[in-house]
Amino acid sequence: MARNYEGADRESLELLKKMEEGGIESSYxxxxxxxxxxxxxxxxxxxxxxxxxxxxxxxxGRGPKKGVCGADANTIAARHFVRYVAAGTAAHSDHGRSVxxxxxxxxxxxxxxxxxxDIKKLHEVAALFEVSTEGRKVExxxxxxxxxxxxxxxxxxxxxxxxxxAPINRQKVWEKLDVTPRAIDREVTESMHRTGMGTDQDYxxxxxxxxxxxLADGWxxxxxxxxxxxxxxxxxxxxxxxANLGVIREDEVNILVHGHEPQMSEMVAxxxxxxxMLKAAExxxxxxxxxxxxxxxxxxxxxxxxxxxxxxxxxQEMALATGAIEAxxxxxxxxxxxxxxxxxxFHTKMITTSPKAKIAGTQHIEINDENAYEKAKEIVKIAIDxxxxxxxxxxxxxxxxxxxxxxGFTHETIKxxxxxxxxxxxxxxxxxxxxxxxxxxxxxVGCTSSILWPDQMPYMDLVNELIANNILVVQTGCxxxxxxxxxxxxPEHMKNAGEGLREVCEAVGMPPVLHAGSCVDNSxxxxxxxxxVKEGGxxxxxxxxxxxxxxxxxxxEKALAIGHYFVTSGVYxxxxxxxxxxxxxxxxxxxxxxxxxxVGGKWSFEPDLKVMxxxxxxxxxxxxxxxxxxxxxxxxxxxxxxxxxxxxDGSDVHAGCEPGLxxxxxxxx
Length: 669
Hints:
By secondary structure, the chain is of the alpha/beta class. It is built from 26 helices and 16 strands. The chain has a 6-stranded parallel beta sheet with strand order 6-5-4-7-8-9, with helices on both faces. A 6-stranded parallel beta sheet has the order 13-12-11-14-15-16, with helices on both faces. Strands 1-2 form a two-stranded antiparallel sheet. α5 packs across α6.
């Protein structure tokens, strides 16, 4: 399959060509070998949910219109959609469960090397869970908070506690539709039940359950993960760092950390700076130990510690192909099995650490809450001992861009930057949206994949188009990593922004493109939207805000779960691919049109970047029109007679004045 390399990232392209010359298979080669892929599967019309299948339903009328059981295109496509959302919810939420277990173990003193870092956030989450803090030790509070968070996964009654952070009008929408998320595990289990043969066969009912399941992710498991990670590792604050493959060091022991749960990477980071380990590295001829991240672990380590970001998900093979990596240590999600083959062409050791994610042919060193630090030291020592085995004749580290980035823009950070310690507030943001300097806010988040690169629509082009139109961009996940390595996350990039947005960024000292964390941290964006509503002036619900959500290149089921919880939270959400239910026009229409009438948000699936940008801008202007903030207020200079006419029936024009002061003003008039 011929690929268009125009506009490709030069550093990545050089390594991809190096792999090709060396006979090393990449994910792009494997994708090309899969062509043509199953057309029925691509549009959601291949059902394998029972042994009577697989059944293909032909949307063009040339083949069967129903599966063996009688399921039509709408039922089959909706079931697939629900299972995507359930799988994504399970992934993020299981992450959250692991963090809850770690918080409990840390509070009990069972997790050596970990500590409770953000006491303020601990107290905030304790209040949400109605956990008493008065006169109690930090460890006692943390243990109970962890237990309460763990209960959210299997609670027999009630709904998700974090859902109470949503605006009250949004909660009423969910209650009316009966989609307020209950126990996280219950929603995932029920998704599997409903989509099995012979159960739910109404596509609208299926999609509404997908709404509830996705909310169990965004306002449940994912939010639990983010909040508890902040308690343990510290709530990120603005920090400078570097990104791109150039962060790999020629003269140091290089360790890549890849995955999603920061438990492993946090301890590897600590162990890599242990004096004993640094001395061992020096003994084998290395100048030090260098740690770099891939995928969402990279985002976590970058925003908390300034540890360099080597690349996003689809750059993992290229990082290994530099020939300079002593060890790649992974945990869960988005780790390619093909990494083991690439590593085998070099001296690189690949090490798995989670009992949930082993890979045949790799070394497994299991990290749990109790042994994390000692096992992390073991991993670092393996990398050090492997350093002399590096074949320097095969090392190729791209000498191009190593971009500066500024990261750590949580919802707390934004409040602080806008108002300071004593007046932390979203008021300046809301005011600048109302006065038009900022037209709206868009979350550009999500995956990268091997399907379209290097001729894919770059995240960078879309983001630059948005900021040029005075739209503030917030990013997470691999989409954030794409823009980080292109140098778009520094205040200096405001030169690409429109005049209004640039004026605000200059005043505050922030970039026009804000890095908010990993993919699980999309919950931060939900809370930011809620804060905007709470601050006032932009409507009474998230669905009234001039905001949108975008993922150009979704790959993992998590992305669909994220998209759907934003839609169900009232946000217009666009994906840069064809709809996964495109073979069922009724389901597609329900997702892209009719669902908005129920939940206030809707989907668009649009592969054309220019069309997508216009859809976003038009949507934001439509929301501004509905709020009445696009109407320019006529300014009038009042003469003495006009001012006298404003005082009617003893009232006074000087709003906010004390009665005595108003009297003085009248005397002057």
